[in-house]
From TrEMBL:
<keyword id="KW-0812">Transmembrane</keyword>
<protein>
    <recommendedName>
        <fullName>Integral membrane protein</fullName>
    </recommendedName>
</protein>
<feature type="transmembrane region" description="Helical">
    <location>
        <begin position="98"/>
        <end position="124"/>
    </location>
</feature>
<keyword id="KW-1133">Transmembrane helix</keyword>
<feature type="signal peptide">
    <location>
        <begin position="1"/>
        <end position="27"/>
    </location>
</feature>
<keyword id="KW-0472">Membrane</keyword>
<feature type="transmembrane region" description="Helical">
    <location>
        <begin position="75"/>
        <end position="92"/>
    </location>
</feature>
<feature type="transmembrane region" description="Helical">
    <location>
        <begin position="51"/>
        <end position="68"/>
    </location>
</feature>
<keyword id="KW-0732">Signal</keyword>
Length: 134
């Protein structure tokens, strides 16, 4: 018996894993903090603190490294970008002003550029390590 219907799903797994990891990491690091901080001078910051975003980035290094080291560089980049973009859309879509679309677009561009850069470094480092070992 042929298992042809599962083939497209299996091809999507390398991209689906980083996307799900990005969604979960966003929820863990940024999803719970929804209010802005008001300072004594009346200025507001937030809702996210710097340490939360750093934690998100460091957490996402693990699934990106795993995907790239297995030869799925494009899946790591596109999956992570799709996951972060979807999470930002869901998290910010209740903005009455409608400007959340610009923020989501910036998340998409930034995560694409950042993940592509990190993936390239991981891929090049992996090749150098393999050459040195042989």
């Amino acid at each position: 018996m042929r298992q042809e219907p599962l083939k497209p799903v299996l091809r999507m797994l390398p991209a689906l894993a980083p996307a799900l990891a990005a969604l979960a990491a966003w929820a863990a690091w940024l999803g719970w903090d929804q209010r802005r901080d008001v300072h004594a001078d009346g200025s507001t910051t937030g809702p996210y603190e710097t340490w939360q975003v750093i934690g998100l980035v460091l957490t996402l290094l693990v699934p990106v490294y795993r995907a790239v080291s297995r030869g799925h560089t494009a899946s790591a980049v596109l999956g992570t970008t799709a996951g972060l973009t979807a999470a930002a859309w869901y998290d910010w879509s209740d903005d009455a002003g409608g400007l959340f679309v610009i923020g989501v677009g910036l998340v998409a561009i930034g995560s694409l550029a950042g993940t592509a850069s990190v993936s390239a470094v991981i891929a090049l480092t992996g090749r150098g390590a393999r050459r040195a070992a042989s």
